[in-house]
């Protein structure tokens, strides 16, 4: 067992049984389901963070269901996975959400998709499957076919209600003006002041995790890569890494460096585009159009390098699907010199505009305590004074050789999230140049070893929005048995609802854009 | 940056949009372009059919000897797997991009194997 994990688990107040796991920095332990709240509270009390949670239907194999909480030990690059079996007939376990608020969505999701009930969950409403889906229909159970269409019911969703003199509700969405994804926002206000926001998402739930079950890893990658339009590299890398860790495949160094480079290119065009979108949220048109121009230039470079504006199709299982030419890479690095200067001028322009700076300072404030309690990740965490970056906490790919500088802001408001992104843009420009310069020669792909049946492993990468954590279990034919995609957006969405409280309604678009979370990534 | 400069900057900036139509700005998409078949090079072994993750490619028998190779751009995800799989380089990535059609059938392109393209 790993050093820090052993230190922690030795003093654990509950009985734990250690099981073997293929990945070197993971420890899988099993406990009784009634001990889950105690174990979760204990591990988090020792500095661990919830990385993901998975519900499992193991019935063909062992006539059991199971839930598994995955904890990250950021200071030690270790993961502790706590699993508890659930006898299929009972299908319940004591909820951990009251001691670990970050688990709130995961537990509701497992209830919807597998029918495993977290007893005494503070918010037992539906999450992923909207109320029209019939009771007792749990699509991730192995006996449910992915093509069956159950009859829908006409039911109302219970929104959280605020009562009192002068309180009114403002419904927004799920169809919005402009080209954005669907989500329904139910505000409870007094005057302009927001008292509570009930954000209802999962309108774009396509059942990605169900679709990939039974597929080969190569085929599943095509689907996983398309989970979201703007985090394609991160999802592809996370999934491929999970497969490689599961099967004990060592990816050639050149491929890991190029994957790192692609992740940084993805961060660049996202961060620059997101800064432009923050300007749009403040009604600052010069800032939003200039931001859009810079993003377009970056995406054209993506297309010239990989043939795809969103960098799809390069990452493969076992490495890369093809090598990137050094001439094309150097063209990108050369183009970045001008782009970097233009981005600097752009930042001077927007941060030199007093009306804009006044507008972004203050709204959407999140404190470190809230971020930690609800498991925020990426820019969201770093802008609220919480250092959190999987590139440093769990160095993957080439990040152990070329660690990025971590930019942390204390403000926790729109301005802080903009500044963290702006600084990271410069760091990413630097990383791309360093990676292209020191790129090792050699092959970019290697044949995959067989994945042990029933074994599971994590794959992760730091996307522009935070850690994308993929949890993967193989079946006995080297195919996907279960995949759980925990995107950064999924971890951060509950914090958006908290960030808008006590702000005014017109600041909601601005605050929402300062997080710029994907819906498709979250809904899957 | 002073206010006057801020106002003048957009005026000094050249137009950034390109002139499509008629001038299209087509970057080289490399392997990620639109797959097109050269029927003369096709060995009819079906490597592309087997490898296509969305079953967008089909070979349909028509009579004793005639066979039609069909690619449905409505199902194609432009992954390039067919291009990589072909031992004879019969499928190439083209820069075709105006693929929209008012009809669903308009997204299906077909080539007669051993004959000439009719689609």
Secondary structure: elements and pairs:
The complex is a heterodimer of chains A (524) and B (119).
Chain A: H1 3-10, E1 17-19, E2 26-30, H2 36-45, E3 49-57, H3 59-62, E4 64-73, E5 78-87, E6 92-94, H4 104-114, E7 117-119, E8 167-172, E9 184-190, E10 193-200, H5 208-212, H6 217-225, H7 232-247, H8 253-281, H9 285-306, E11 315-316, E12 319-320, H10 326-351, H11 354-360, H12 368-374, H13 379-382, H14 390-393, H15 414-438, E13 456-463, E14 466-474, E15 480-486, H16 488-499, H17 508-515, H18 520-523
Parallel strand pairs in A: 2-5, 6-7
Antiparallel strand pairs in A: 1-2, 3-4, 4-5, 8-9, 9-10, 11-12, 13-14, 14-15
Helix pairs in contact in A: 6-7, 7-8, 8-9, 8-15, 8-17, 9-10, 10-15, 15-17
Chain B: H1 3-12, E1 34-37, H2 47-51, E2 57-62, E3 66-72, H3 81-85, E4 91-94, E5 108-112
Antiparallel strand pairs in B: 1-4, 2-3, 3-5
Q: Can you describe this structure?
A:
The complex is a heterodimer of chains A (524) and B (119). Chain A is α+β, with helices and mostly antiparallel strands and 524 residues long. Chain A has 18 helices and 15 strands. Chain A has 2 domains: 3-119, Beta Polymerase, domain 2; 208-523, Orthogonal Bundle (Cytochrome-c3 Hydrogenase, chain B), CATH 1.10.645. In chain A, strand 4 (64-73) and strand 5 (78-87) form a beta hairpin. The relative contact order of chain A is 0.13. The mean pLDDT of chain A is 92. Chain B has 119 residues and is α+β, with helices and mostly antiparallel strands. Chain B has one domain (28-112): 2-Layer Sandwich (Alpha-Beta Plaits). Chain B has 3 helices and 5 strands. Chain B is elongated and about 75 Å long. The model of chain B has no long low-confidence stretch (mean pLDDT 81).
